[in-house]
Amino acid sequence: MTSASTQTPGPEFEALRPLLLGIAYRLLGSMWDAEDVVQDAYLRWMGADRTEIRDTRAFLTVVVSRLALDQLRLARVKREAYTSPWLPEPVAGDAFGPLDTVELRDTLSYATLHLMERLTPPERAAFVLREAFQLPYEQIVDIIGTSQQHCRQLHHRAAGHLADGRDRFEPSARDHAALLRRFIDAAQGGDLDALAGLLADDVSAWNDGGGKVRAALRPILGKAKVLAFIGGLLARYPFDESRIIEANGQPAIWMRIGDQDQLAAFDIRDGQIHTIFGVVNPDKLARVGADEGKHHDSL
User: Which residues touch 277 (CB under 8 Å, ≥6 apart)?
Assistant: First the structure.
């Protein structure tokens, strides 16, 4: 007899896998952890009495959300001790199926995932489940373990925490990619004045090396310091290997600086770069890359 851990998931579960991964990833910001959560949910589903499960989608949504919420509580402690700022693991935008709504796209964007690190685990769960997946509050109650009124308060509070750093009217993919091309052209030409024109006055740069490769250990804040940081890199390393790819549903830059691959994601508002996210940790670059990502050079 084959054990549940070695059985291949059937079509019913596989049809729901993109949804389940999308929930877990938005809650955790890590595809590795999301896949573990979904696998654990599959084992629980296989061991459950199917005659008691009236709605497989609802059942698995609750199981995955609870597991991800528990994992997030543990992950927050580890992330506080992480070497360098902790940044989400970039993924391909189609990893979880079509991004059919503004909310699905917004909660997958790199900038929003980064901002969600400010939230408590219950706030993040209430926000993601209600905002992105439109779960009714009575179902969220079963996941978080609180009252409907408190779930509404958690959602409202989370939206308030994120409001200052989120812009619903983001640039189109074409405009986003065009600005990144200007960034690449200026960097390749060593034109710091042109780069300065692309940066907001309050721009910040976050770099995640995970202690495995060299990276700034703290956020770099303000145009002058970010420009000096970029200028220092350009003075030491050529910026020849770079291209625009897709990550988290938006254009990003895949580059090689020295002997290190790096993905740079950007928060762009009002035609300027407000945040640069540099992911250098090689463990977080497996899902996107110069070959794996979808190129936007034709936009």
Answer: 87, 110, 111, 114, 206, 208, 264, 265, 266, 267
